[in-house]
Specification:
The structure holds two protein chains of two kinds.
Chain A: H1 2-6, H2 11-32, H3 34-44
Chain B: H1 2-7, H2 16-62, H3 66-84, H4 95-103, H5 108-123, H6 130-136, H7 140-146, H8 153-184, H9 189-200, H10 203-214, H11 218-245, H12 250-260, H13 264-274, H14 276-290, H15 293-303, H16 311-314, H17 316-323, H18 327-339, H19 354-359, H20 362-376, H21 379-382, H22 387-411
Helix pairs in contact in B: 2-3, 2-4, 2-6, 2-20, 5-20, 6-20, 7-18, 7-20, 8-9, 8-14, 8-15, 8-22, 9-10, 9-11, 9-22, 10-11, 10-15, 11-13, 11-22, 12-13, 12-14, 12-22, 13-14, 13-20, 15-17
Chain lengths: 48, 422
């Protein structure tokens, strides 16, 4: 039981690590295509 | 491989419908917000343009410095751009947009929260969407990490330091008061302990962290979480209007909200609602206060004298390691990168740079999270807040809010203002 649970992350920790992964992805895309990232979130997603 | 497995729950598919619903809700609301903001800016521009043109003409006659004129012309350029965005002309008015956006503060935060609560409690949400809605709330966390590009270390030391002292005082003061009164009134250690930790710091996270330590029962956890969420929801809607009425400055409001609103998501929502400067201060103080969670757990152990609790789970190092909110390290990593002033990353206001691009993204993460909060607030769940413990918890939280207001009024704006560097 202990061995099985040792590798498991609590949901709180999992959320935190996913948050870091998502932020890293945003950083990565922003480094390679800053204008595209900016335009997607500031222009293209607004349709009205 | 086991790390990857532990990162993905086997039943991940159940989250998809709720996440899609939140994304659609956020998308619609963000577009309404954008429309209102565009017309409100045009309305302001329509009134200001003739005044600024007149001022420029006066200054030119007086032979004023070029510097002054350039500033006014830059401002005029921005106003003309705002008017052109709606194909408007000077003198044309869009008072409805100003009324909704400025007077009523009907921004994306309010629309997502109020709209979400109305949808959840009138039309209702089919069960298939609920798991995904629950998982949308933590999407505020990547937004908080990305906001790290708004700060430099001098802000962390100045605002974060002030905030840390302020919140530490209120956190431990409230926790001690609630635990003491609960014990005196015969409330169980489980409920008193989690209510004390919850009203002291970060609400739900602290309740979840403390519950195993005081062996709180599931029903007691539901009571405490219900109380925290009910109080947080009330404050979320009351504080922005109260702040405006009392003429609380934006940085002061950010600090005040960080003291009074316990749940991170609700805090960010209230501060974002009040304004960008309020949000910047609130996020930084929140980063400081959530680092105190492991210490509130240890404090609870000390207060209830739980020496017999399993040593493995309550050792100092284990508590810090298990309860430390890891995502905040991502936030501080970005603050560090921004402070180093590396030209390759630029800054949030330097067009064409990575940090400028990142700055465009965080609001969408917030919108998804706020959609999750609004759609998950159920009046029935709120009714679960429990009797005497609710009275003690909400009484302490109200006292903390009022004392917090006095504290930020004494501290003033300057010490709580985030500069953001370049």
């Amino acid at each position: 039981m202990k061995e099985n649970t040792a590798g498991c992350l609590s949901s709180e920790k999992r959320e935190d690590i996913w948050a870091i992964i998502l932020a890293l992805l945003v950083l990565l895309f922003s480094v390679f295509a800053p204008d595209l990232v900016h335009d997607i979130f500031k222009k293209y997603l607004f349709i009205i | 491989m086991s790390f990857i497995n532990s990162m993905i729950t086997p039943d991940w598919k159940k989250f998809i419908p709720g996440l899609i619903l939140c994304a659609l809700f956020a998308f619609v609301v963000m577009n309404i917000h954008h429309l209102l903001a565009t017309y409100q800016k045009a309305d302001v521009a329509s009134v200001k343009i003739p005044k600024i043109e007149q001022r420029i003409a006066e200054l030119q006659k007086q032979g004023a410095s070029q510097e002054k004129l350039v500033l006014l012309q830059e401002n005029l350029g921005k106003l003309n751009k705002a008017l052109a965005a709606v194909h408007g002309r000077v003198g044309q008015r869009w008072k409805w947009a100003t009324f909704l956006y400025e007077t009523c503060q009907f921004k994306y935060v309010a629309m997502l929260l109020i709209g979400g609560i109305i949808i959840r409690n009138t039309i209702g949400i089919p069960k298939v969407f609920l798991p995904g809605i629950g998982i949308a709330r933590p999407l505020i966390k990547p937004g908080i990490i990305i906001l790290g590009v708004h700060y430099v270390w001098s802000d962390v030391v100045k605002v974060g330091g002030t905030g840390l002292v302020l919140t530490a005082f209120f956190i431990f003061g409230t926790a001690l008061t609630v635990m003491y009164v609960a014990k005196r009134k015969g409330v169980s250690d489980g409920l008193g302990g989690i209510m004390g930790a919850g009203t002291g710091v970060c609400g739900v996270s602290a309740i979840i962290a403390t519950a195993p330590v005081v062996k709180a029962k599931p029903l007691e956890m539901a009571y405490a979480i219900g109380t925290i969420l009910l109080f947080g929801t009330l404050m979320l809607f009351v504080m922005p209007y109260l702040g405006q009425w009392l003429h609380v400055s934006q940085p002061q409001f950010g600090a005040w909200a960080a003291i009074a609103i316990l749940n991170t998501a609700q805090l960010i929502a209230a501060a974002e609602w009040y304004g960008d400067e309020a949000r910047n201060t609130a996020v930084l103080i929140n980063a400081a206060r959530i680092m105190l969670i492991p210490f509130i757990v240890m404090y609870t152990v000390w207060f209830y004298g739980l020496k017999d609790v399993g040593k493995e789970s309550t050792g100092v190092w284990n508590t810090i390691r298990n309860k430390f909110p890891v995502f905040i390290l991502g936030f501080f990593a970005l603050v560090l990168l921004n402070s180093l002033d590396i030209s390759a990353f630029g800054g949030p206001r330097e067009a064409g740079t990575p940090f400028w691009a990142m700055n465009a993204v965080y609001k969408w993460f917030f919108a998804l999270g706020f959609a999750g909060i609004g759609l998950s607030i159920s009046i029935d769940d709120m009714k679960k807040s429990g009797g005497l413990a609710f009275l003690i918890g909400s009484g302490a939280a109200t006292a903390k809010m009022l004392l917090g207001l006095i504290a930020v009024m004494i501290i003033g704006t300057e010490l709580l203002k985030v500069t953001g560097g370049h």
